[in-house]
Design a protein that fits this description.
alpha+beta, Aminopeptidase, 4 helices, binds coenzyme A
C-alpha cells in the first residue's frame, strides 16, 4: 500500500472502467491533482495497492472538518480492486492503511456512503466493522424542482 504516483493513473482508470463501464480520464486527472499531488499534509489520501509490481486496487479518503454538523471525521469515498485479485485481502489492507493514517491524524470516526442495492460493497464495509450511521442522506431532483412547473416532471 502506498501513495499514488502519476504513472498509476492508467491502471487506476482501467480498474475503475471495469467496475463502472466508463473511462473517465479527465475526472481521474482532477482527482489525482487534488488527492495525489496537493494532498501532502492536507489529510487527503489516494492510496494504491501494488501486487507483483502491478497496481491492483486503490482507495481515496479524506478528513472533513465540522461538516454535516460532525466533528472531524474520516470519509472513504472510493475503493476498487481489480476483479482478478479480489477476495485476497487487498481492499482490507487499503482500509487498514487509511484507518492508521486517520488515527494518527486524531480522527475517531470513519464514514462512507453506498448505493442501497450494492450488496458487494455493503458486505465488504460490514466485514470491516462498519455499521449503519445515525445519519440520513437526502437528495433533491433539481429538474423536477424547477419553479413554475417547468421541470422535467411538467412534460409528463
Ligand atoms: C468491494 C471490493 C473493494 C472488495 O475488495 P477485495 O479486495 O475483494 O476485499 P477483501 O478481500 O479485503 O475482502 C474482505 C471481506 O469483504 C467481504 N467480501 C469481499 N468480496 C465479497 C464478495 N464477493 N461477496 C461477499 N462478501 C465479500 C468478505 O467479508 C471479505 O472477507 P473474507 O475474505 O474473510 O470473506 C471489491 O469487490 C470491489 O472493488 N468491488 C467493486 C467496488 C465498487 O462497487 N466500488 C464502487 C463504490 S466506491
Amino acid at each position: 500500500m502506498r501513495a499514488v504516483r502519476r504513472a498509476d493513473l492508467d491502471p487506476v482508470i482501467a480498474i475503475d472502467a471495469t467496475v463502472t463501464g466508463i473511462e473517465k480520464r479527465t475526472y481521474w486527472q482532477r482527482v489525482y491533482r487534488r488527492y495525489g499531488i496537493a494532498a501532502r499534509g492536507e489529510q487527503r489520501w489516494f492510496l494504491v495497492a501494488e501486487m507483483d509490481g502491478r497496481v491492483v486496487g486503490f482507495l481515496i479518503g479524506e478528513v472533513r472538518d465540522w461538516e454535516f454538523g460532525s466533528p472531524p471525521c474520516g470519509w472513504v469515498f472510493a475503493i476498487d480492486v481489480d476483479p482478478q485479485v479480489r477476495q485476497s485481502g487487498v481492499a482490507s489492507q487499503l482500509m487498514a492503511a487509511l484507518s492508521t493514517s486517520l488515527r494518527r491524524a486524531g480522527v475517531r470516526m470513519l464514514r462512507t456512503l453506498l448505493a442501497r442495492d450494492n450488496t458487494l460493497i455493503l458486505s465488504f464495509f460490514r466485514s470491516q466493522g462498519m455499521m449503519a450511521a445515525p445519519l440520513i442522506p437526502l437528495e433533491l431532483d433539481l429538474q423536477e424542482a424547477l419553479p413554475n412547473g417547468s421541470g422535467a416532471g411538467a412534460a409528463r
